[in-house]
Batch of 3 targets.
Target 1
Amino acid sequence: MTTLVISSQKGGVGKTTVAVNLAYSLARRGWRVLLIDADPQGGVGFSLSEKAREAKGFFNLLDPTNDKDPRSLIISTRLPEFRLMMCGTADLLSGGEEPQDTPELRDQLRSLLSQFSDHDLIIVDTEAGIHGLTRAIMAVADYLLLPQQAEPLSARSMPRLLRHIAALRKELGEDASTPRLAGLLLTMVNGDDPVTGEIESDLRGMLPSELILESRIPRDPTFLNASRAGIPVALLHRKTPEAAESFDTLAAEVEDRIDLAKSSNEQESDEYTRLMD
Amino acid sequence: MSTLDSWIDRDELAEVVGELVKVSGPPPSAPAMEEVPEPEDSEAPINDTTVPLGLEDAEPEVFPVSNEGQEAFSVGLEKSALTETEQGEAPLDIEQTQVTSGECAHSHFPAEETAFERGILEPETDVVEELAEEPPATDISHGAEVFGSVGEGPMAESEIQPPSLDAVSEEAISPFDATSPESILSEAEFGSGETAQDLISPGSAEEISAPEAEAEAEAEAEAEAEAEAPIDFDEPQAYDASAFPAPEEPNPESAISPLRRTAAFQAAEALERARDRAQLGGLLKPAHSPNPPLLDEFDDSVLQNTESVSEEFSPASDVGPMGLESESTTEFESIEVENRQEDLDFTPPPFEPVSLDEEPVPPAPENLAEDISTPPNDAPPSEFEDSGDKVTPEELPMANPPSPTSLRGRLMAYVEHARQKTGAEIVTVTDFQSYPLLPGPTTPAPAHSALRLSHWLGLLTAELQKTRDGVTQIAVDHHHWLCVVAADSAAGGVCASFRLNDPMPDDLARELGAALRATLGEAPKVEAPNPPLPVE
């Protein structure tokens, strides 16, 4: 099981869109993917179902009074490999106050995530900002994927985002093997806009290829239509929309960057060993 | 000047990037970076006779163009070719793109120049004589490694020949990418008027006799000391672009530099690896997680999430086209599909379960009422293995034929059925992205792609004329025909192509198309082959 957290310091960069569509693309490739909505705004649920706001989910599991089996809150979709956990009712948690990034919270998150080990990949969509709960989730994750809007304001804040990541790594100690960086993902790339092109060129020039994904997500009205329809963009039309192909490319690249095949093989090997024992 | 330069402190960014690069990507089991050999003479003394040519020391370390260069660099140099130490110690400042070639020539070898001016360094005759005796082999080695690191990784010395260096430099350097480090690198190594070919040409070197060479070297040194007129790297026409052959069809307005293209090659390789994994079964679900039939209408607003969702999350209401559902309901829905198919008087083709029924599947109930009377599965709804399957070596992907309940198993049954029906030599099943879904011999990809294109055009014609189903087949030579059948579903499309000795009859093609759709769990479509999906 690999945990991939999608986070960014700035809001509106497309985290939820990336989370939903990347999860769907990876599931289509055969990986058992659980998408957890850890954003109190409930973006994932609202992207897929109007009724999602009433479903219990991730935040309910963080509530000390919770007695629900975490696995019972997983919602299956028609693509069997793709499963969801809604954000739940966040206001139940600590009287609505945002949880702080504490060792106890991290332990609780580790324990929680370990219960979903029958998935190949857990994708966690977080709220904007790297603090509190989001920071704790990042601390216990295996990989971080950082959507980065290809626009000037977002690009200027990029160093600060990286500083936060570096600080988190430093806090965890040099020996910590995780979290690792899957990379920055350029989103909302408008190929017709010279400013966007310039920003993309600058960012790719500044950052080594290890830190920035080759794939990029275009700015495309198809995403709005898909969101309105409550489906991943790949399901919008019978013929795969062009915008969806960018997520297929992204899925292939992410799969490679986080070495999903290896971790999955190790997991299957562990299961096999357990069965043999 | 980058638009972000005034906003981003590059020194600080370089420091952070240096830390994060170490923890990017998969854990360091992939040793691509560490395997790059360290050039032996990277610490060569300054009176090394090969130094002035610049080819031997084409390491990033020898290009600290300025002391300000503690930067994130890397516009062009492939980071995978650098060791971590090199990444930390050898930054290239992107702003160096504005340094003139004369400054580059001076700043790259300040010690050598000082020594030369003081008369300590006497490389000229030796170097020229070395060139005359052993023209290219040794001098291009490290330079080629640098180029190789930009492109396809380090080369063995034995592989390096002058033409290959020429080819590599042609591929990697573009005059339209004046800001790339290769341009700086090449300028620094070869001078603005020289090319790698100039330096390694055996003919030119052999023509130089020793006295002439000495005089010529002095002249060169003087010229180098005086330097040429400063070159503005932001102005492509300001320097001799002919030294750097343009790639085919250069696009000056493109934001993607040749080095980004190199990265694109890496991405393509990653895709290729993914494709390979797909061929090994990675595209489909592992055998221990059976794939229940997909529904024909994914926007059918039926939610049966009675077990896994809270009471407030009413399953009867609008849930969106994703159709959130609980695990335990998929069986009901699959039976529902079967009954719907029966209502349409469509009988799926008789699959040949001979080799696939090693894992017996409980017989499906005759009708929905009977199925409802069956108690639901009590297993936790989130277990992928709740069908009882456990992973064994035999069930791992590709080890044995998968369960007939999985999509892969059903596709294999379909192929077997179609092969018996048609006598096709080769049956290729791919998704719409041309990923082969099953192992075994496949139709050549170009032929398959061309056939698919023809198929879609045929469907378009059929859609417009409403005369017949699209049956697409072409003669690939005097003895063989290819016929393609495609089916789409909510989870993706699948193509099957058949290599036959004779054209496939229309009715058989239609039957196979319907069978393939049924294999995917789609209801048979009799009229329009691919009706557009209404989006609300």
Target 2
Amino acid sequence: MHAYRDESARLDDALLALFERWHRDGAPLGDGEFNAFALRLFAYQLRYNAPYARYCEGFGVTLERLPASWHEIPALPSAAFKEAAIATCDPAKAELVFETSGTTQGIGGRHYLERALLYDAALLVAFDRFMLPDHLRLRYFNLVPDRAERPQSSLGYMMAQVCAARAERSDWYLRGDELQVERFLADLSEAVERGIPVCIAATAFALVHLLDALAARDLFVALPTGSRIMETGGFKGRSRVVERDELYAALCERFGMPRDAIVAEYGMTELTSQYYDDVLVSALPDTGVRYKVAPPWLRARVVGPNGATLPNGTVGALVHVDLANRSSCLAIQTEDLGVQFERGLVLIGREAGAQLRGCSLDAEDLTAR
Amino acid sequence: MTALEGIPARRIIHAIADAAARFADADFPPRVRLLDRIVERTGYTIPVVEYALDQLFFSITAPALERTIVSELGSLDALDRFVDRGGGETEGFARPIGSVAIVSSRTTIGVAIVPAVFALCAKCDVLVKDREDGLVSAFFTALTAELDAAGSAARAHAWEGEGDAVDLARFDAVVAFGGDATLARIRERVAARAPFITYGSKASLGYIGRDALEDESQARILAGDAARDLVLYDSEGCLSLHALFVESGAAISPARFAELFAGAVERAAIEFPPGARDARANARIATARNLAAFRAATGQGSVFSDEQASFLAVLDPPASEPPAFLPRTLAIRAIDAPDEATAYVRRHQLPVEALAIAGSRDEIVNMALDMGAHRLTAFGRLQRPPLSNTHGGRSRIADFVRWVTRDR
């Protein structure tokens, strides 16, 4: 037990130092350093995360037969978090427990994080880098689950931490599934009148409803300079889906803001760290393609069906290797598709699971095509 | 008046059979020319496409057409004139319903041809929404070579979108293949008076009773047959094997059968190599494989696959999981009795098209009836429905005729 505690503490210290170093000078993590850290963390997880170790054994990977590269670390499907406690620690002792929102089958998973400090530090330094490169203190309008209402939501927790540390002021406008439009508009008007730049943090679905509400009132609100929108979460499980380009164009029109003031965050409950669009930090021209960047301790592998990393520019499934997932599993396999480029990761998007099909497979849609 | 009304049914049937016979010849130039286009459209490999074309066209013979028509209408002559239909009290004449539109599906091969053939036998005018490869058009061209009037009666062309979409409201019957949402949209465009004949999404299943698992050699044959039912059309057909139930308690356990099955799938892939898959399907299969591997590592079930995830067989996934509906992917569920299979089907509200059965107990047949299956068959024949069978429980020709009766 002492060995676990000591080893965990050493890893946490190393991670916190890494976060701090990057926050301070933005220095990238070299391939060798990332590899060494990943393999060290992997060996630790094989020792203390029994379900993951048994899974890896099935791939012939054990403490005695460790891979040579982080690319070869067996990735655990995110759905495995619904099957077992994926944790190096006693789940009852985890300081944070986040729950996935479930799937079409309605079964949620849990991500146990032994130390909140690690999660908080990882999210804040990345948020600072990718959402607040200008260090502005913004007023936050959160259209995401309120931590007080849904403590198991990682997104709610994330925004609560950001607001506590970085906000000029913040409030929450989602109660259950209800968007509190009138209160939102009143508060937003006040911020606009006072010229306070704002950050609207919202799921894509909530943004669509917000736009509907603005349209119903024929309302256009020119946000103060420096304002931004953090869009997250996509449309998973929702019946109404709007193309992202269409959504962003409507937001720009309604809020009188440039397109590059909208930043999409991409995260998963099973990850500690997040990806962001590079629009606020990249000096490269806007090509219309959204490139995702991440802090240096989070890397994506685009893989084929055999799990091997595909060359840049090739579409494949995403495996995320998040060194900040110290107390769970560092390599997470998803069904999300993406393409890796030099500039960053491009998401191809998420879609619903496979459907019942038959001789009518993909039958012609007369009206929609 | 339709284009074929003045032509005897037998003449039409023989013309259709002759055209099909031409297409059944793998060297028939129009068929050869179509092959690559069908491969390109569907993503299936050439052996799979060749098999599909053989299955389709070899089945369309004059005797098979005549048998089917007689079984449904009572008489072939009923298509040409009044015939006795009521023990001497009534005569009936099966007149064409009129014009029929057939909206086929995107990835199947020639699925529209069978209803088109029966609509033509009923002397209807037929328009088929063809696919990019032009298979139906090519078949109709061959048919016209056999029967001039077919040139007017049988038309096929591709159309897209609402701009140049055919006005379905002017047809006397519409046949459509599709999912619920698609069919609902099409239904809105069909005239209220016109029959709307739908073939919605369906699943097919397999059930192996313990009496069929008493020796290894029998189990190997069964595994080979079930493997073929899985791999053909990469599990994308309504007649593909989507879930398999295996009874416990026999000499060959479900786990052993799963091993045999996995080996058989690999061998079946030699005859029918996997088709092209997109990254999305690859990602889903790989994820499903690894999740099954995780479950196996934690003591739940087993997984059989290969490095490329070209197939996936999972023994005993949770009952809460519906069939994966992924290429060459199958869940094998060990059960003790048929009611467990029925419960699974009900839980997931699976619309069952066909059930492959090994085992002779009455309760297995009763289970199939309870599930609502439209067809019972043997393993290895799941994807080879006889022409005379119903499809989706629907008759082949009866929907395309309008009976006129005359009292005697």
Target 3
Amino acid sequence: MTTNPLLQSGPAGSFYVAPSLPAALDALSDYGTAGAPFAGGTWIMRSPIRHEQLKAHYVAIGKIPELSAVKIGTDTIEIGAAVTHAALALALARLPEFGVLTAAAGRAANPAIRAMATIGGNLSATAFAAADCVPALLCLNAEVEIASRNDRERINLEQFLRMRSTLAPGRLLTRIVVPRNARKTAHARLPLRQSGDYPVAIVSLAVATDPANRVQAVRIAVGSVEPAARRWVRLEAALLGHVLNPVQATKVAAELADEFTGRDSVEVPAWYRVSVLPSLVRRAAVAALGS
Amino acid sequence: MALSLNVNGDRRGFTADPVTPLVDVLREEFHLTGAKPVCREGFCGACMVLVDDRPTLSCLMPAALAQGCEVRTVEGLAANGTLNPIQQALEACDAVQCGMCFPGMVVTLTHLMKATPGATRDDVRSALTGNICRCTGYESIVEAAVRALTAT
């Protein structure tokens, strides 16, 4: 009955709202390649626009209590995969060390999207290059838990990003675990509009400094420039041991930015995404020093 | 698949693919055409409805997931035929637009007034971040919302 012609293909499927994690994992295992998890839906519901076929079966995980909670512990925080961006930003608002993640979750897209889109979906949407939370979690050294009907395993986020497109049917990202450390963090993003837009480029920064602002440990991640977010390891190495100076960091970033190959799109050309990186590094450094 | 929704206080049954966007069900099945399927990407806000009192992009919500929820469209905002405070303020300030984006804005602002009665002008602007007006008539709409908020 839909008027969206892109949805007029294939027989009607099924939509199972799972009441618990074991029930969701059982259903995903039973459906195999014909099924997929459905979290916030903000990526899956746009499949027709990308000319991608919808799955025959979806397993909704948004009502599973275990996946919808943020647990703040002494050493780590644990984020359920179905926690929305809005809920995550609210839960972390009073934890300055997670400012980078609060900003990523609290400023992505627009309010209604943030109320629907989940952190698990953000990490799992393989083709979504502009995901804000991915570089934020990379710089925070996050790990993710993958569960299936019969086992669970925890891997670091970088490993997950490499294998997410080939995740076996029946396996589900269930939670994100982020270590708590004394650090300064910042999330610098450049959308084409002031707000409500996806960013051209993102620089996420987590840095530990001594009292003289000398860098003792640092992780920097870049998002939206290439098809998948990744750490900027050479820039991290160049900053380590030196006083965090935004002007100097900008200069070093400009020297190292040619390691990125920007993705071309209708919004901006590839070179532009790379060209704004030094400015975003400066903004991130300024924000981190002020945090 | 047989589904049922609670829309504007009425329980309605229909048959559809469960992943059918809620906006299509509202418009094609129930003939509630206030919500508009414009971008179908969650960017424009023209399809905004309230689901359990929260502004929700009905182009991104599958009909099956709206089951058991209270869906309220722009057609259901005026209780017993009386415009709600934001609707009254928009009318008083002559802040109407072409009708494409406007229903979504009314839904968003209705929620803002209820959830954040002390909202500031900046709060109004933030709330409308996801409602795009191609006529660029934002200022009179923001002004009307501020006036309605001040009056409460």
